[in-house]
Amino acid sequence: ACGGGDTAQKSNAQPSTTSTSGTKDINWEERIAKNQSIGEIKTMTSFNYSANIANANAWVADELGYFKELGLNVKVMPGLSADAMKMLAVGQLQMAHAGTAGEIIQSVGNGAEIKGVLAMAPVGLIALMVLEDSGIKSVKDLEGKIIGYKGAMPANISAMLKKGGADLSKIRQVSVGFDPTILKTTEVSAITVFKSNEPYQMEKLGYKVRLLDPQDSGVQTSFGIVGANNEFAAKHPEAVEDYIRALLKAHEWIVQHPDETIKILDKRASGNFNTDIETNRLKVETSLIDPAKVPGKGLGWFSKEQWQSEIDILKDSGISIKPVTADQVANNSYVSKVYDGDKLIWPEQGTKK
Amino acid sequence: MSQSVTETNGGAVLSEGKKRTKPLSESKLKGAASSFLTPLIAFVAFFCLWEMIIRIFKIKMVILPAPSGIFTELLRNFSFYLPHIWTTFTEAISGFFIGALIALIAGILLSQSRLLERVLLPLAVLAHVTPIVAIAPLFIVWFGFGAFPKILLAAISTFFPMMINSIMGFRSIDENNYEYLQSLHASKFEIFIKLRLPNSLPYLFSAARTGMSMGVIGAIVGEMYGGSEGLGNVLTVAANYLQMERMFAAIMLLALIGILLTNAVKVVENRFLHWHSSSK
Amino acid sequence: MSQSVTETNGGAVLSEGKKRTKPLSESKLKGAASSFLTPLIAFVAFFCLWEMIIRIFKIKMVILPAPSGIFTELLRNFSFYLPHIWTTFTEAISGFFIGALIALIAGILLSQSRLLERVLLPLAVLAHVTPIVAIAPLFIVWFGFGAFPKILLAAISTFFPMMINSIMGFRSIDENNYEYLQSLHASKFEIFIKLRLPNSLPYLFSAARTGMSMGVIGAIVGEMYGGSEGLGNVLTVAANYLQMERMFAAIMLLALIGILLTNAVKVVENRFLHWHSSSK
Amino acid sequence: MSYINVENLSKRFVRRGQLTEALSEVNLEIEQGSFVSFIGPSGCGKSTLLRIIGGLMGAEEGGITVGSRSPSEMQSDKQFGFVPQSPALFPWRTVLQNMNIPFEVNRKSTTDLSDAKGDPIELLHSVGLGDFMHAYPKELSGGMKQRVGIARAFASGAPILLMDEPFSALDEITRELLMHQLMKIWEQHKKTVIFVTHNIQEAVYLSDKVVIMSSRPGRITSEVHIDLPRPRVESVIESPEFYNYVGQLRELLRERW
Amino acid sequence: MSYINVENLSKRFVRRGQLTEALSEVNLEIEQGSFVSFIGPSGCGKSTLLRIIGGLMGAEEGGITVGSRSPSEMQSDKQFGFVPQSPALFPWRTVLQNMNIPFEVNRKSTTDLSDAKGDPIELLHSVGLGDFMHAYPKELSGGMKQRVGIARAFASGAPILLMDEPFSALDEITRELLMHQLMKIWEQHKKTVIFVTHNIQEAVYLSDKVVIMSSRPGRITSEVHIDLPRPRVESVIESPEFYNYVGQLRELLRERW
Ligand SMILES: Nc1ncnc2c1ncn2[C@@H]1O[C@H](COP(=O)(O)OP(=O)(O)OP(=O)(O)O)[C@@H](O)[C@H]1O
Ligand SMILES: Nc1ncnc2c1ncn2[C@@H]1O[C@H](COP(=O)(O)OP(=O)(O)OP(=O)(O)O)[C@@H](O)[C@H]1O
Ligand SMILES: [Mg+2]
Ligand SMILES: [Mg+2]
């Protein structure tokens, strides 16, 4: 089952297509009963309890009972995306959240049978941060400087450097820890950051910073990814669909209730949480999502081309993976079905409560 | 003039033998107090120095927080830390005992045969050198989010020093005593139980001290990569939030657990090693 | 009947003393070969088992790569790994020697005085229990991206087991020998050099084996959080890209370094510990 | 054939290319229930021979049987009570606990030694260590340690006693006391005693046969049968026969030293 | 006042609440250059007294001076050559290297002992260990180890020798040899020798004075001055005076045992 780019293009041109019309006639009673028969669905967030979009969706959906409303017995677990991908691959998880599409692609390239089924925003979250007074305004200015990365250099940054015409041999790339203030305290001039996190931390500490955003040089990636185990998705396509449906429903609520959202997460983390930082994260990420929405499509929808370009970015940045196709790594058919046009389909209040 | 045997000191001896119970237990109490007091003083001195350095050089909190801030954080949110302490503590200690047990068994096998040692020791080195930081995520994937993978990591961390020391300890026997047991046709097992094991106690207790703190580290690393409990988790989350005071509070608590556990080893050691020259 | 002393075996003795040089060096060669061969066989068996498990249970590469894949990756890109191996190796070994030296000095101090032990040991435990994973990033800030912070981390990792074992080793002396030296009014330093140090060698060599592999781990962790060189860096980058074969290739190389270094300890040990009952 | 037969036994130690011939072509017969002493210069191989008889060591050449079996078979049958030259006390055990070692490892013995076994506590009292039952070895004097080793061998009830200079660290009176105890046990239980000593009087007083060894290489130079009446009373020491034996042995020792 | 003065010395050991009175009110005078033997039952405190004289141990009560100084001062002046009851050989050193220990730690001595010092290699040959110079202690027999300890004390050149049963593991002939060597060194270098033994003949043959101790508590019961001509020749053993002394000592020992 594959949504396919063509359909996407078509529906793009024709917003109120009938392609989703069938879903309007969902027999909810039957669907809920079917969902209930599946048993527990395990899912894992990409970064514990932090207010990343998609993660927050899952926690809120759980808190507000959206999963239950659809008959899904979902167990949301805090985790890290690197683990989550592996557990998804072996079927210990049925669904899992990834930070970036790249993680799904790399997992598939390593033999994992999983697919991306939701991308909250077709826009990159990772950027390069420099101090405002560093004089670095473009990637070319980074020549002769040191860039710090966490774990590994993200592909979209590598792509940005290339596109900007920087001489990579003149840039030293080093792995660094969690602390963004090393821009001030060490000879590192730029570090990879989440737009929704480190800039705010730096601001709080009183440092003025500037972001070099791959998005600006046309390096398009995405964030807020949800992946599904292939076997599970093939067996229970409706469950995958309804999982997404609950997340998106939760998102609508989150946009309305950011403060309550933070409270919910704080409670879930039993205090192992930073309200300021997470409030900011949520704010920044929700603000990134909206303008990036594919016109005429519901939130979270993505195209095949989008994934293809992410595959290409990975390849170009020299990360060796086995060749994969866009169809192997993503399937937008589930997210396509949760919308009527760009309106989320949700069972009438009568069926529940 | 350093004394080479336990001796009475001066007048105390002259009192009657029966009256000795009281002063003895008193001196025991005193000993216990001083054995708590001296390290306490050391710590207070250490933290004062630290605090002074922070203030004199005006070091920012993101670089290194002041002890005052760390302790304030600790005291204010103590109930927050409590369950995490318990989690890490139980994981570390279970891991330690499992790791120690396996290490002893391995030590017995490897000390019995040079061939087995040549075959298995490199594999043990492989297991030990493989950074737990690298395998922790795999363990989470293989064994889930419960306490098990953390206990396993603690056990692996404990294992190696225990095994290496136990091999050496089991072999460092007195030839005369060994020969005497042989003359009784003691089985390998009896020689182990009666001679090798008690003889290796100084080695085992040394290793247990190292192993205890390594067990704590193993548990922490496991917590860093999976689950939402334990001081390891508090540590990473705090690090990510740049909550340096909380991060260092977690480190303090870890150190406390480590010190507690190594001191527990010491207590057991004093009980079992009074006959050894190291206990003078 | 197990023999309790070095003995000649049967006929060989009857040959002339002078002719013994040749067969001796031959048997040495043979010994060296077998001491390489046996672990090799162990490893081959281990990897075969691993490969079989992967094939039988069809385990996916993201979970655990097959040895065949790992070795293919290793051989194909060997020149890529070479400089990283060298970096990690030198850092680990420098760290080991620095850590061991400091540990010896600390061991001397602490073994001389119970008071000093009570004061300083808890601080040492604090340093050891503090997870290097947590302080590695701080070290980068303090000491930059060169080899220094990694060497420091390797030294810290080496330090603790070396110190704990050296304290016990320095104390586990023979009372008679100690008394004899005292009768000569040997200074504390002389007693240390002539009695405590040689006597502690079995402890020190055991600790060195643990310390060597811990030094490697310390270096790796440093590389994970700072810099662009070394197997630790290769490891994290690969882990983050989910390049499992490369990740495990790095682990293999780390294990190789660890095994090499612990074997080096063994060689030195054989040289210095022939008099000890453990060297039978 | 006698009880213990040593035939053409040779034993060598090699250290860094240098050869020590500890024993060379030793031939020896020992009757069951007899008391045989070994005497000879320091380093001549007495302890080594004792170890070989006790099955603690193999030899390069020659054969040895004890009760028509091999030493290690006899050892596995718990036939030997060994008093090593340096008292093998376990430092983590009290004196009494050290006494108990033979009982703790004797469980699998097929021979029933229960008759011959002594009571550890009683024996400790009889060697003058009643007050030190619960002391640790490091709290004992040299002679006290040695007495524990002797008492332990007595307690074990083993039919063959291998005693390597057991009285060397004892004063004359304690030594006499223990000698009498040894004689009593030996006579009562018909033990075979192999006894190494440097004290010629002691050897003559105790033995049926004294074996004289010489060193480099260690070999047996002569055997002297002591035909003094049994049981030996103290006054025998003053008899001319006793005096003669001592003189003869001294001569033999001096000759081949 | 004499060279070594012990006054009212008492020494106790306590273990788990139990008290051992090792020495009780010991009074003793030893002249410089004299040869004094101690004899007494096993465990009576001979080794303990030797340790206290050598400054290796303190006492609870009483005073002790050696050459009007305290034992530890004398020790720091490298005045003592100590032969412990169990030969203190370092297992990682060869015999020769063990011989060299006193020289290695004697650097800071203010007294010049160079005259009195012996050549280690020569001394090893003279105690019959020439072939075992490069052997390790574990390759030696019991008596050989003891001889290394004695040779080491001879080599050190210390003016006061504290010898704790030095000949206990040696055969008669080796023992005689070493006794003569000891006498020679003692006479040549005017050493003061404090000698613990269980052998009454040995004590009489060697000593100017024999001190007899009894045990529980350890105390000195009598002192016997040996007025036999010096230098003592072997034939003295057969003299009636010698015989008398031996008998007297044996009596004294037995009386208070
Ligand atoms: N483990 C060993 N390695 C090498 N040589 C040894 C070993 N044990 C004994 N020897 C040698 O064998 C010879 C005989 O030793 P053994 O202990 O049997 O002598 P002994 O007759 O008991 O002497 P002593 O009366 O001094 O105890 C000695 O020359 C000694 O050096
Ligand atoms: N470290 C110690 N702890 C407790 N008691 C001790 C210690 N050392 C010696 N003693 C006790 O002191 C007493 C005297 O011991 P010492 O070694 O002086 O005897 P000794 O006369 O040398 O005997 P031997 O002839 O057997 O060597 C003994 O009763 C012994 O148990
Ligand atoms: Mg012997
Ligand atoms: Mg003594």
UniProtKB/TrEMBL annotation, chains B, C:
Gene3D superfamilies named in the record: MetI-like
Limits of the ABC transmembrane type-1 domain: 85-269
A family per Pfam: BPD_transp_1
Keyword match RNA-binding: no
Transmembrane intervals: 32-50, 92-111, 123-145, 151-170, 203-227, 247-268
Membrane topology, record value: Multi-pass membrane protein
UniProt keyword annotation of Membrane present: yes
CDD domains recorded: TM_PBP2
Source species, domain of life: Bacteria
Protein name as it appears in the record: ABC transporter permease
Organism: Paenibacillus filicis
TrEMBL record, chains D, E:
CDD domains reported in the protein's UniProt record: ABC_NrtD_SsuB_transporters
Keywords: ATP-binding, Nucleotide-binding, Transport
Residue ranges of every copy of the ABC transporter domain listed in the record: 4-240
Keyword check for NADP: no
One GO MF term attached to the UniProt entry: ATP binding
Pfam families in the record: ABC_tran
Protein name: ABC transporter ATP-binding protein
